[in-house]
Amino acid sequence: MKAYRVFDNWEPSCATVVYAETARKAKAAAMRTDTCEYSEWTDIRVRRFPEMDGYYRGWEEMDWYNKNDRAVLVALGWSCGERTWECDTCECKAFCREWEGDEEEP
Description:
Structural class: alpha+beta
Distance between the termini: 48 Å
Radius of gyration: 15 Å
């Protein structure tokens, strides 16, 4: 199964990873995600994400709320987009680009 990064053309900063056999099937899968559920077919963009191929475990989409999935995505440069109160307890903060260098000075 191949990994694809999918996003709406109008909101490229919000993306998810889906697994499918082809780009067309990945686009169809994208329409079943929170990221693209209200998107028009023509607005959904699909890009191969081969770095994620080895993390397929039978689910159609990577789950940001699963700590293992999140750790892999954050290690590849993904983030929540902005800091929140959850950052303090996030297991990925040590290598998150949003957290990095943003701690208070002693």
